[in-house]
Specification:
Radius of gyration: 14 Å
CATH architecture: 2-Layer Sandwich
Order of helices and strands: HEHEEHEHEE
Strand content: 25-35%
């Protein structure tokens, strides 16, 4: 996994789905994520820990600017969110980890993204929470 993704500009996105994945197709959710990540040229792996928690482990090796990386990720996640709502009829809250380099950081990034998406429970669905001083990005 790490060899394919690489170790540069690593980010983890945790998604919490608004309804039980049993009611919808987990395959449809994964395919929607994959389609949007592929079209944005983001190297990624979709990992499902339980029915309502999904992680996207991704790298953005070609970009060097943190703002450019965040912009690419936000654009892609916004499109993913729109596809979820239009075609699968679910809402998602998303926690976005820091951007770091190095194989040893995946677990920390996953925990960070998971913690941020948990905060969405208090905010509401249709938000992105980022690690940098917990910026709140409302998606309306």
């Amino acid at each position: 996994m790490c060899d394919w993704l690489g170790e540069i500009n690593q980010v983890v996105v945790a998604l919490s789905i608004s309804s039980s994945v049993e009611m919808i197709s987990k395959k449809a959710i994964k395919q929607t994520i994959k389609t949007e990540m592929d079209s944005a040229l983001l190297k990624h792996i979709v990992y499902c820990e339980d029915d309502n928690e999904i992680f996207i482990l991704l790298t953005v090796p070609k970009l060097r600017s943190e703002s450019a990386i965040r912009e690419r990720i936000h654009t892609t996640l916004s499109l993913t969110k729109t596809r979820f709502e239009q075609y699968i009829y679910v809402h998602a809250a998303m926690g976005i980890s820091d951007i770091v380099d190095g194989r040893k950081h995946w677990k920390r990034l996953m925990n960070q993204a998971r913690s941020l998406v948990t905060l969405c429970f208090f905010e509401r669905f249709n938000v992105f929470l980022e690690s940098k001083s917990v910026k709140l990005n409302l998606l309306i």
